[in-house]
Amino acid sequence: MAVTTKATIASFGGKLLKCSHNASTTSCEMAFNLYLPPQATLNPLRKVPLLIYLAGLTCTPDNGTEKGFFQHAASQKGIAVLYPDTSPRGLNIQGEDDSYDFGTGAGFYVDATREPWSKGYNMYSYITAELPQTVFSNFDQVDGSRVSIFGHSMGGHGALTLFLKNPSKYRSVSAFAPIANPSNCDWGRKAFGGYFGADDKAKWAEHDATELVK
Question: Which of 59, 87, 111, 140 could be disulfide-bonded to 124 (CB atoms 3.0-4.6 Å)?
Fold first, then answer.
């Protein structure tokens, strides 16, 4: 679970870290950004809560830090923000780079059950388990008992479903323009059909926020 910090950027009194690690769930090196607010960097003994931001289709960890720019508010409230990637990258699976809404940049925060995607497209396990465990073990300032999650578009779908399936993991959930019913939209049907198979509608329902709240 070793983390490589590739850049450290001063940001609103805190630090924005650009990191990577070798992930077993996705079978590749994964990038993530982590913002540590001044409350954590100035007092290393103080633990701060963590907010996980799940991005939308085609995004990388840099979209949230450079376009969403949540660091300003996070610095004021004393909150660390974790910006994961949206999929594995470079697995050399045929077709993974053919379209913007499936494969690279479009992991949909699920664990694929259909070959060949099941060999690395396991973003559900990565976001709910491996990545936070990696962060907690490498950054003592982050409080693993105070974690919340939010996201936008595909990331809003991810935030809602991860929270609904694991309510004890997160203190709160928020979503901006989420794909709230992926089983009934083109993006979701394409992703779920590819990752789970067109006929496994029970699996689709397990990752559809509208179905989970019924």
Answer: 111
